[in-house]
Design goal:
Layout lengths: L5 E6 L9 E9 L5 E5 L4 E8 L1 E6 L2 E6 L2 E5 L5 E5 L6 E8 L3 H6 L9 E3 L4 H13 L5 H20 L5 H5 L2 H14 L6 H8 L3 H12 L3 H19 L4 H7 L5 H12 L3 H7 L1
Antiparallel strand pairs: 1-2, 2-9, 3-8, 4-7, 4-9, 5-6, 5-8, 7-10
Helix pairs in contact: 2-3, 5-6
Length: 276
């Protein structure tokens, strides 16, 4: 008898921790050809395949995934993923963001060039740790801390299982982390890429190469993405006008803000607020 499909998910209403916060978590048994996207997320998202098969399309590549595999969605990157027609997958997922996310993920085997992991040997451990995050769900401060703690446990395991050497992991990343920290603290001001490079202690061209190699994006694109993520939060959680939000996240030109927002999310800021 065919197993029924189901979906259990939880979305966190308030992200109270700036270092690392869970955005959503859940698990789902998909129907054949069930698809999400094409679309973009404003946070990182790890999916782990429990059983069945499916496909993940990103950056002009399609990855075929099976039980034991995991894939990572990067914020601001257009993706789509769908279940196999004959063996639709069952997966668990956790979405998250925060200042620690970049450096932690850099120390796992996930990368922009290969955003998938094939770790059947620890599949049950990954599944269990994601389920522990789900079990800790809730919007009290205690729940949020517990969910983040369980997330750190999952990510620590992925770091421990990484095949990269310690030297490879640490090479160049210190500069990137310093730049990312500067952006997270100063995005609301009209900072420039030159200022980020100066603070980091490298040239603008070298900073560009570091970001491309480690994050798969340019410093300017990363700064814009950071500002747009913060704008999304303000649109959902405040009654500030679009103009006020634009200025609050570092856009001096309201028209440019609206164009940049629509380019990424395919809706205007006003439409985004209405939908959320």
């Amino acid at each position: 008898m065919k197993k029924e499909t189901y979906k259990y998910s939880y979305k966190v209403q308030e992200k109270l921790l700036s270092s690392l916060s869970v955005y959503n978590v859940g698990y789902q048994k998909c129907e054949p050809n069930y698809q999400w996207g094409p679309g973009v997320r404003d946070h990182y998202l790890i999916h782990h395949v429990i059983c069945g098969r499916g496909y993940y399309a990103v950056r002009d590549r399609i990855y075929e995934l099976k039980a034991g595999d995991s894939f990572l969605v990067y914020p601001g990157t257009e993706v789509r993923y769908w279940a196999d027609q004959n063996q639709p997958w069952e997966y668990a997922w956790v979405g998250f963001a925060g200042n620690d996310a970049v450096s932690i993920l850099r120390n796992t085997d996930f990368s922009r060039e290969k955003p998938i992991l094939e770790q059947a040997a620890i599949s049950r451990k990954i599944e269990k740790r994601i389920m522990n995050i789900y079990k800790a769900k809730g919007n009290s401060f205690e729940n949020i801390v517990a969910m983040t703690g369980a997330l750190y446990t999952l990510l620590a395991m992925l770091m421990e299982e990484s095949q990269c050497t310690e030297t490879q992991k640490n090479q160049q990343i210190a500069y990137v982390e310093k730049a990312v920290q500067y952006v997270s603290e100063r995005y609301s001001y009209p900072i420039t890429v030159e200022e980020i490079a100066s603070y980091t202690g490298v040239s603008r061209s070298h900073l560009f190469r570091l970001f491309q190699a480690n994050l798969g994006t340019s410093p300017k694109e990363y700064l814009t993405s950071c500002r747009l993520r913060q704008a999304c939060q303000l649109l959902k959680e405040t009654d500030l006008s679009v103009t006020a939000i634009s200025h609050s996240v570092g856009f001096e030109n309201n028209l440019y803000f609206s164009k940049a927002f629509k380019k990424v999310f395919h809706v205007t800021p006003t439409q985004y607020r209405a939908k959320n």
